[in-house]
Amino acid sequence: MKAATVRRYGGPDVITLEDLPQPEPKPVEVRVRVTAAGVTTADARLRANDAPRGFGLILRLITGVIRPRNPVPGMEFAGVVDATGTGVTGFLPGQRVFGTTGMSGGAHAEFLTIRADGRLLHQPDSLSDAEAAAFFFGGLTAADFLLDKAGLRPGERLLINGATGSVGSAALQIARSVGAEVTAVAGRANHALARKLGADAVIDYGAGPISGQWDVILDVVGTLPYPRAKGLLAEAGRLLPVTATLAEQIGAALRPRRGTHRISAGVIGEGRAAMERLIRLHRDGVYRPHLGRTLPFAEVRAAHALAGSRHKQGNVVIVMAQTAASGAQVRSATGVNLRDPVDGGLG
Ligand SMILES: NC(=O)c1ccc[n+]([C@@H]2O[C@H](COP(=O)([O-])OP(=O)(O)OC[C@H]3O[C@@H](n4cnc5c(N)ncnc54)[C@H](OP(=O)(O)O)[C@@H]3O)[C@@H](O)[C@H]2O)c1
Q1: 161: CATH
Q2: Which residues line ligand 1 (CB under 6 A)?
């Protein structure tokens, strides 16, 4: 099979396409023929060993000290069950599935194996393969922070700092469904998108310091640590630092209360219950992942460069050759064809 590989940490140019043996499913595993895979900020961070300050060594201990332990990157995928281990129930060859391999990676390849009782679910027909591949990263993060950590309530004023990327575009949709009054911070070029996804007001981060009062601040980009966010939080306001340094995370864990304010940081839960809740939100018409760019697998380097840019719209997805050839799945939620190859392909 063709697989993207990262044999040393670095920029997008360290990625190569290699021929690797197809993985064999263990008795409890399913082999998935990948049709599309998300290329997320986390994939770009892992490839570059670029963790928020303080997490660099911890990240290397998890992913490999000298070089990535699993050379195949990628977490989020959509695909078709190709084979099942002898002990697998609940999945049959040919069924459309989607899920996430988490930190173990392996999704930027034509085939992957994953435990059947792990983070693997049946794909709803209402999602294209590209949308299914972009479903979980931003959506799980936004739902965890807004619903679980903040307990966002109708009528509350919410500021989303970094509102049109993967996490922000999901957060806008979820916040709208809760009935919050949402202010989105993004570059001017993305203000129309923010409004379309649910923002009541928009702020250009290039136009000077932010001013106002909010009940909840979701800081996706990490430019509003508590000392800066303090003056923007209303009485009993909650700060949600999605991208926190190690010191900020420890500080939030040891001292979550600051006067009437509360800080809730941490890594999100990606268990099946959280995944199933997100699927329910999709079925209820609340959430659909926003597709920014959808690129052929051969352009995985360009996809990684976009994912690490900190300025992408929604989600970046790579589609495998057989999916791209059909043309059927390479479209946005609005039906606009987003297959728009950019330079940097590996052929
Ligand atoms: N805690 C957790 O468990 C967890 C889980 C998932 C993700 N994360 C973290 O979440 C972060 C963001 O993820 P993402 O995938 O949503 O990012 P992304 O897709 O790259 O989106 C970045 C967003 O930030 C905006 N932005 C860029 N510079 C800004 C600035 N100076 N001020 C305000 N907004 C700015 C961009 O707008 P323009 O494009 O208009 O510039 C865009 O809307 C990553 O650092 C990731 O590691 C944490």
Answers
A1: 3.40.50.720
A2: 40-42, 45, 138, 141, 161-168, 185-187, 190, 205, 220-221, 223, 242-243, 267-268, 310-312
The whole-number pLDDT of residue 44 equals 96
* Structural domains of the chain, count: 2
Centre of ligand 1 from the C-alpha of residue 117, in Å? 31
Cβ atoms 190, 164 nearer than 8 A: yes
For a ligand 1 pocket test, name from 53, 205, 248, 310 the mutation site with the most ligand atoms within 8 angstroms of its C-beta.
310
Smallest CA-to-CA distance from 127 within 301, 294, 288, 269 is with 288
205 and 257 co-located in one domain: yes
Q: Are residues 234 and 117 in the same domain?
A: no
Distance 220 CA to ligand 1 centre (A): 5
Q: Are 293 and 341 a contacting pair, CB within 8 Å?
A: no
pLDDT tens readout for residues 292-339: 999 999 999 999 999 999 999 999 999 998 765 544 333 333 333 333
> What distance in Å separates the CA atoms of residue 120 and residue 238, rounded to the nearest whole number?
33
Which residue stretches of the chain have pLDDT < 70?
Answer: 323-347
Ligand 1, atom nearest to 190 Cα: 40
In a domain, 165, yes or no: yes
* Distance from the alpha carbon of residue 288 to the mean position of ligand 1, in angstroms: 18
pTM of the model: 0.92
Q: From the alpha carbon of 166, which atom of ligand 1 is closest? A: 16
Boundaries of domain holding 41: 2-135+289-326
Is 195 in the same domain as 166? yes
Helix axes 56-63, 41-48, angle to 10 degrees: 90
Host H or E run for residue 237 = strand 233-241
Q: What is the CATH number of the domain that holds 73?
A: 3.90.180.10
